[in-house]
Specification:
CATH architecture: Roll
Number of helices: 1
Number of domains: 1
CATH topology: NE1680-like fold
Radius of gyration: 12 Å
Shape: globular
Number of strands: 4
Order of helices and strands: EEEHE
CATH class: Alpha Beta
Length: about 80
Amino acid sequence: MKIDIYTSTKNGSKYLSVAKGTNPSELTLSDSIDNDLRHLSPFRTRLEVERGKEHPALDQEDVITQIETQGYAVHTAKSFITLG
């Protein structure tokens, strides 16, 4: 599955992913979704995710399951890089 990832403009450690080409502004988001995820900026497009494969920054199985279930996935990154 190819996905597009958006990051919160209010908190850069929160992400919303959708199937490639899906416009997140057209989704019906849960009322309980974190308000930070209502303000998004594109982060990465056309990322290939695959069940059963490890990815250094995200839980692919969880992201795929969420997208199949609700049309989007809410997640953080598994690893962070701090420059300073």
